[in-house]
């Protein structure tokens, strides 16, 4: 280590050109040296070496086109047959994750279709968004590199297509007639750019999109969801465009009733959906029922509130409440999309080349969104065994965008949070299959009075067989905790299993995470989405107000886990109450970064978010709204380090979400006296509220045996004051 560090820090390579040549020759050596360089005085020099090295590596990638794509194809081709067999071997159990991800994919696409129909005057509707999601999902499940990735029409696509429509309808040479043809040219240019990104291995730089950019983008989508929900509810009180205003249902009293019903259905769907998502923590009901409600509660609530919308007095006109508008897929207004390619050359040449600008934004947006969704579907915590295919998936995405443009439907790309949800559901399935087989093997061994090592050996064999893992050393490492639970330390091979070993209990607790990596669930859920196109007569029964409530649900449900949102909330917590945050699970930066630094960093992100949101309101330039997120790469690398300490910036912009357990805070000082300046100070009314029931009875509290032992173990701990410190971890 010292040798590498010494040679790096003392090297003198002359001019930058000579430096690059030398680095090109000794790349591996310099890379190792930079990584072990710990001398603070040589920090700037080490960073310079690193930047030049990254530049040389990027140049090498540009000189070897298709290197990443070829490597991805070779890596995934070896597993292609197994991808299908793994799905079919799962039997009917594969239907659980399939239905779970189907509902998670279909509902947003239906809602986006309603939004797109309103924004494009009915040119694009739910039929097109469902068709795009189904077609692209089938293509990706069969030909894609990473089958765990879920694709679908997302909110950024709706925003871009809205801007394209607003631009085209005001251009005499285009108008609504050539809107889809011009959008087709945007897709063609976008596909070409995605091909180039895949060709020149651009996925290697996706790591430069750090948490700062990702959380800003996620928060912008959240704000746009809320905006859409509010706009939709307000529209319920107005007469929709393109209808006969003399109709009885558009009189004031019925518009008012429609609006009030819209508010009730929207808030009702929002509240019940949020409650059902947390059903696993309920104290009522059996575990399987709570799990079912948590997994399928949201689509169930859509059905419930749709049914309630029909439980109205018969005197209410049939158009109240307002319902989803969409032509049926077999009507002429839907069928004309499939032949939009014949109108491509009716677009004036000037507008064909003008389509390059929005295509540049769409390509960058898809590249970022698709790659991040793929990354989150392949998090290292999932312990995936099959290789990734980032470069090849971008190439496949280019073909899907091209196809969608030629048939006049909005393109699909990798979506969040459906992609990691898909992986997580398959991890549960794989765990069930492994656990069942291993418990059966262990139980048979116990009945035959086999030794502990014999039972462990058989269980290890089952694990290797079902996991297709050839490296027994890695399996031994992953099953070490299970082995320790089975064996007494120091026992020989003939000793019998420890008496306290329970197969069901210990295998459940010590089984490593495994994912059922296959293509069948993705294909089946895509086929189900396609079936929804034929079920449009049923889908059209959903009230639009229920969909606006679903937009609000998507916005609020996306906030937990977003550290940007957590830091915004912390800005409104007074210093005397910060201990309450630390008593529950909290992000690790709260204990390592000064509160002033957290506040300044959050204000910067908040201002940047407002700028991004403001751009979306600009009529023509709004199409450039992805540009600030690309600029964030440069700001993160070159601007933020000048205003924040490196360690603080690394904590606030960490690649992984690290959460710490809460620590109980003693609200009394060591001597028992109260102190208004202490971080545990509370007013009498708050204490009285905690000790009083809703009936007015005073509660008599006693410690459980567990709490008594906890207090005895921590009786000597002294709670610090937080009024004079800026580190939250000290209170």
UniProtKB/TrEMBL annotation:
What Pfam family is a match, any one? HCO3_cotransp
InterPro entries annotated for this entry?
A: HCO3_transpt-like_TM_dom (IPR011531), HCO3_transpt_euk (IPR003020)
Q: Which domain of life is it from?
A: Eukaryota
One GO cellular component term: plasma membrane
| Transmembrane segments annotated in the record for this chain | 94-116, 122-143, 148-167, 179-200, 212-234, 254-273, 293-312, 350-368, 389-409, 606-635
The answer to keyword Lipid metabolism applying to this record is no
- Any GO MF annotation of the entry: solute:inorganic anion antiporter activity
Entry keyword annotation includes Protein biosynthesis: no
Q: How does it sit in the membrane?
A: Multi-pass membrane protein
Q: Where is this region: Disordered?
A: 707-731
Record's subcellular location: Membrane
Q: Which residues form the Bicarbonate transporter-like transmembrane domain?
A: 65-238, 260-430, 513-655
Q: Which UniProt keywords apply?
A: Anion exchange, Ion transport, Membrane, Transmembrane, Transmembrane helix, Transport
- Which GO BP terms sit in this record? monoatomic anion transport; monoatomic ion homeostasis
Report the protein name in the record. Bicarbonate transporter-like transmembrane domain-containing protein
Species the sequence originates in: Oryza sativa subsp. indica (Rice)
């Amino acid at each position: 280590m010292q040798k590498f560090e010494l040679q790096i820090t003392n090297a003198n390579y002359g001019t930058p050109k000579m430096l690059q040549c030398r680095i090109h020759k000794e790349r591996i050596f310099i890379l190792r040296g930079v990584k072990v360089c710990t001398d603070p005085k040589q920090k700037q020099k080490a960073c310079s070496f690193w930047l030049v090295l990254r530049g040389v590596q990027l140049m090498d990638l540009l000189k070897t086109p298709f290197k990443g794509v070829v490597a991805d194809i070779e890596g995934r081709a070896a597993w292609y047959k197994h991808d299908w067999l793994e799905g079919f071997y799962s039997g009917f159990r594969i239907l659980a994750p399939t239905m779970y991800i189907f509902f998670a994919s279909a509902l947003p696409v239906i809602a986006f279709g309603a939004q797109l129909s309103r924004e494009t005057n009915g040119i694009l509707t739910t039929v097109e968004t469902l068709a795009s999601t189904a077609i692209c999902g089938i293509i990706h499940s069969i030909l894609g590199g990473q089958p765990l990735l879920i694709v679908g029409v997302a909110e950024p696509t709706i925003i871009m297509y809205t801007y394209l429509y607003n631009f085209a309808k005001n251009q005499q040479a285009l108008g609504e007639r050539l809107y889809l043809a011009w959008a087709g040219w945007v897709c063609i240019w976008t596909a070409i750019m995605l091909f180039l990104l895949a060709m020149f291995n651009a996925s290697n730089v996706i790591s430069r999109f750090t948490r700062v950019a990702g959380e800003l983008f996620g928060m912008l989508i959240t704000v746009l969801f809320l905006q859409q929900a509010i706009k939709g509810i307000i529209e319920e009180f107005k007469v929709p465009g393109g209808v006969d205003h003399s109709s009885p249902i558009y009189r004031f009293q019925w518009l008012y009733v429609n609006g009030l019903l819209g508010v009730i259905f929207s808030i009702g769907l929002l509240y019940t959906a949020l409650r059902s998502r947390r059903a696993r923590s309920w104290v009522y009901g059996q575990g399987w029922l709570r799990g079912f409600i948590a997994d399928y509660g949201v689509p169930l609530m859509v059905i419930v509130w749709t049914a309630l919308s029909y439980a109205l007095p018969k005197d209410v006109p049939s158009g109240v409440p307002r319902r989803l508008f969409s032509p049926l897929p077999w009507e002429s207004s839907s069928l004309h999309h499939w032949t939009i390619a014949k109108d491509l050359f009716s677009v004036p040449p000037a507008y064909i080349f003008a389509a390059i600008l929005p295509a540049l934004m769409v390509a960058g947006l898809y590249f970022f969104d698709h790659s991040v969704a793929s990354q989150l579907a392949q998090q290292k915590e999932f312990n995936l065994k099959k290789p990734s295919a980032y470069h090849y998936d971008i190439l496949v995405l280019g073909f899907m965008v091209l196809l969608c443009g030629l048939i006049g439907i909005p393109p699909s790309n990798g979506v969040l949070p459906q992609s990691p949800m898909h992986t997580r559901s398959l991890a549960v399935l794989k765990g069930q299959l492994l656990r069942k087989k291993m418990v059966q093997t262990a139980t048979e061994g116990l009945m035959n009075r086999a030794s502990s090592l014999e039972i462990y050996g058989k269980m290890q064999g089952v694990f290797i067989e079902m996991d297709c893992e050839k490296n027994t050393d890695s399996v031994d490492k992953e099953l070490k905790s299970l082995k320790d639970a089975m064996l007494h330390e120091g026992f020989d091979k003939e000793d019998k299993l420890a008496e306290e070993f329970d197969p069901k209990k210990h295998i459940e607790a010590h089984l490593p995470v495994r994912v059922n990596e296959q293509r069948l669930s993705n294909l089946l859920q895509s086929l189900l989405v396609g079936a929804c196109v034929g079920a449009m007569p049923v889908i059209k029964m959903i009230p639009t107000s229920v969909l606006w409530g679903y937009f609000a649900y998507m916005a609020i449900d996306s906030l937990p886990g977003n550290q940007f949102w957590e830091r915004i909330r912390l800005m409104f917590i007074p210093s005397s109450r910060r201990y309450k945050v630390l008593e529950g699970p909290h992000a690790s930066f709260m204990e390592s970064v000064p509160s002033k630094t957290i506040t300044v960093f959050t204000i910067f992100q908040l201002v940047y978010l407002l700028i991004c949101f403001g751009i979306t309101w600009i009529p023509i330039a709004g199409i450039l709204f992805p540009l600030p997120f690309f600029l964030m790469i440069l700001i993160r690398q070159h601007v933020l380090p000048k205003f924040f300490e490196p360690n603080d910036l690394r904590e606030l912009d960490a690649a992984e979400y690290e959460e710490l357990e809460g620590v109980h805070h003693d609200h009394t000082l060591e001597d028992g006296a109260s102190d208004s300046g202490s971080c545990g100070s509370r007013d009498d009314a708050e204490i009285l509220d905690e000790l009083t029931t809703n009936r007015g009875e005073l509660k008599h509290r006693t410690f459980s045996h567990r709490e008594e032992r906890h207090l005895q173990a921590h009786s000597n701990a002294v709670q610090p004051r937080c009024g004079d410190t800026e580190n939250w971890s000290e209170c």
